[in-house]
Design a protein that fits this description.
48% helix, 11% strand, 482 residues
């Protein structure tokens, strides 16, 4: 490039919006031919969004704060802008809807459907590397911002008419803004946050110890936790057969039928949604599961089942029974539902995952312990991002059954990271394993709140009524005759 060409960089000229190629609007900056960019990575990200039915790729872009200006090529920038608009409208992103959105924005004629179908989708066969492409996109964008600021700084140096201190301060601020954009800025001074903490303390005092979060529906547990709170990851663990799913559904029931109700999302990786709804209906209607399976239900129970089904239909409950979900897919789905609720003036109040060890990590080549650690971190990140309590069911390893001792948090299967990431851990185990008790309809379950980051720990006894697949306190036990 000639010296004359280099000097002209940074001056007013016609060019693409955001410094890309192909003019849509005028700008004050023109890039040289060697400007940092990777159009293949840009097309890879766009193609991945179109190919991904789960919404994971778009969710990752939003999480990484990818904006239109991250794309060097102007066509790609406008395509991403249309994709982002569809995402914000909670609409699926495919070629037909994307083309329609671009048309409404006035860009389809300049871009062309063939460009989307051939130049973008034609470059990618799999979305497996979308995270690497997003990182390349971010890297090139920030390199361009640095390059541009260097050119602007040189121009300021040549034409500086003020003090050197003011110039240095101005330049330092410009580069600090670039770095803040890159890493985010969540640092807050005490004066910005203390008032919020005092308001929460005053609310606790005013409520005089009342439940402040999502009620679990069990008096002893609620007295220790004061409900389940936003940003918390709660692990409920036990060996197979201890009723982990049942107690989770009882908590879901408490949440969706409380006043006000808490919109709840359940990810069931083990059971189908129909089966979960059948269990919830039978449990709430107190229909004996054994009799129900044989069709031996009286008219009163039939009426109770219909009443319960009507209540459930009107409740704010969503169940996703997709098998083999990855943690990123799960977070993307939860994020999308929360966004839809926010548009209606509400938000998610509770997420339940049944169960953790059935989830997939992002890299199947990792050792299972590392994969579970990644999934556990993802659960905690989801709770923090959406400001919602996340209940995670987990299996205990076989060592928890050895010897005459109750289970410990260290018995959590496949990873110690679960114990570290959890804000609360509830361990379930049978108190009496004699033949008579096992064959009875009610089991005494030792429920130990073994970890509680925001309150006391302790042990309580619950009764697992197997006829109704329902957890209850002892005073409420109602064992039907067989």
């Amino acid at each position: 490039m000639s010296e004359r060409g280099k000097k002209s960089t940074g001056k007013k000229a016609a060019g693409a919006l955001n410094g890309g190629s192909g003019a849509f609007l005028s700008t004050n900056f023109v890039w040289s031919d060697d400007a940092p960019r990777n159009v293949d990575a840009e097309c890879g990200v766009l193609a991945s969004i179109l190919l991904d039915e789960s919404g994971e790729v778009m969710g990752s872009c939003v999480m990484n704060k990818i904006r239109e200006e991250y794309f060097f090529d102007a066509k790609n920038a406008k395509i991403y802008s249309a994709m982002l608009a569809l995402h914000n409208e909670t609409k699926p992103i495919d070629v037909v809807l994307l083309s329609e959105k671009l048309k409404s924005m006035g860009y389809l004629e300049k871009i062309g459907v063939d460009y989307i179908s051939n130049d973008i989708l034609g470059r990618v066969e799999t979305i497996a590397n979308f995270r690497e492409w997003i990182e390349i996109l971010r890297e090139k964008y920030f390199l361009r911002k640095i390059s541009r600021e260097c050119v602007v700084t040189l121009d300021k140096v040549r034409n500086n008419k003020g003090s050197i201190e003011a110039l240095i301060d101005n330049v330092e601020e410009a580069f600090l803004n670039i770095n803040t954009d890159r890493v985010g800025d969540n640092i807050r001074k005490a004066s910005e946050q203390v008032d919020s903490a005092v308001s929460k303390i005053n609310e606790i005092i005013a409520n005089k110890g009342a439940i402040r979060g999502v009620p679990m529906g069990f008096k002893d547990l609620d007295s220790k936790t004061h409900g389940l709170h936003a940003n918390e990851m709660i692990v409920i663990a036990g060996r197979p057969g201890t009723g982990k799913t049942s107690i989770a559904l009882n908590i879901v029931e408490s949440a969706i039928f409380s006043n006000p109700p808490y919109p709840t999302l359940v990810f069931s990786l083990e059971m189908l949604a129909d089966d979960l709804y059948m269990r919830m209906i039978a449990s709430r209607a107190r229909a004996d599961q054994h009799k129900l399976a044989e069709g031996r239900i009286d008219n009163k129970t039939k009426a109770d089942i219909l009443t319960t089904a009507k209540e459930l239909k009107g409740s704010p409950l969503w169940i996703d029974d997709t098998a083999g979900l990855s943690i990123m897919e799960m977070r993307a789905k939860a994020r999308r539902l929360n966004q839809q609720l926010q548009q209606k003036g509400s938000k998610l109040g509770l997420i339940v995952v049944d169960y953790l060890q059935l989830l997939r990590g992002s890299d199947p080549t990792l050792p299972r312990e590392q994969e579970i650690a990644e999934i556990s971190r993802g659960m905690k990140a989801m709770a923090k991002e959406l400001l919602v309590p996340v209940i995670v069911l987990a299996q205990l390893n076989r060592d928890s059954e050895k010897g005459d001792r109750p289970p410990r948090p260290s018995d959590l299967r496949e990873s110690g990271s679960i114990e570290q990431d959890a804000d609360a851990i509830l361990l379930l185990s049978r108190q009496n394993t004699s033949k008579e008790v096992i064959e009875s309809n009610c089991w005494h379950i030792r429920a130990e709140l073994a970890k509680n980051r925001n309150g006391p720990t302790g042990v309580t006894t619950l009764l697992f009524n197997r006829s109704y697949t329902r957890y209850e306190t002892e005073a409420k036990v109602d064992t039907p005759a067989i």
